[in-house]
Amino acid sequence: MASEALRRKAQADAILERAALQLADLLREASEQLRPFPPFPNALFTNAIEVDPGIPPADPDIGCIVVAEDGELYELQMGIDHEAIELTGSWDPVTARKETLKRIDLHPRDQIVYLYEALRLVTEALLEREAARGGT
After folding, report:
1. CB proximity list for 20: less than 8 A, separation 6 or greater
2. Mean pLDDT score of the chain, rounded to an integer?
3. Count of CB atoms within 10 A of residue 64's CB?
4. Nearest to 55 by CA among 122, 124, 107, 125
5. Is the pLDDT of residue 135 over 60?
6. Which helix (H) or strand (E) holds 65?
């Protein structure tokens, strides 16, 4: 009985992993078509789209999740580059700005939700861009 339960669990895990891989492939394809990506709001150097499926990631330390031009999911971290301030000797808002895309590792069940939402958002942006060009 226990071995059958474990077999079903392993089969379910494999299904989730396959679904996540297939969604990731679709997202990369769609992201290639969207290039150049729209700039992230209030960012100076980052082109990405925020992915918020309405559920928090399993890891509470992960902040803002975005899809970038390469079609991958990242955590966008924004802050101040103190080294740049020291090197330049001045506080320039552009050179002091630090924007980092940090790879995230999500469980396949969470990946599916975030990848699907990212694909939905990229597809929406593609359709909007096409409509703005007059449908060509």
Report:
1. 108, 111, 112, 115
2. 88
3. 14
4. 107
5. yes
6. strand 64-68
Please check whether residue 54 is in contact with residue 65, taking contact to mean a CB–CB distance below 8 angstroms: no
pTM (predicted TM-score): 0.84
Please name which of 62, 32, 33 lies closest in space to residue 50, comparing C-alpha atoms: 62
Alpha carbon 114 to its chain's center:
8
Of residues 111, 101, 102, the one with CA closest to residue 24: 111
Strand partners, 54: none
With CA atoms as reference, report the closest residue to 72 among 17, 13, 32, 127.
Answer: 32
Write out pLDDT tens, residues 45-54. 899 999 999 8
Rounded to an integer, what distance in angstroms lies between the CA atom of residue 96 and that of residue 100? 13
Instruction: Read off the tokens for 76.
Output: 């966008």
Per-residue pLDDT tens digits for 11-40:
999 999 999 999 999 999 999 999 999 999
**Could you tell me which residues come within 8 angstroms of residue 50 by beta carbon, excluding any fewer than 6 positions away?**
40, 41, 64, 65, 66, 76
Element (H, E) at 50: strand 48-50
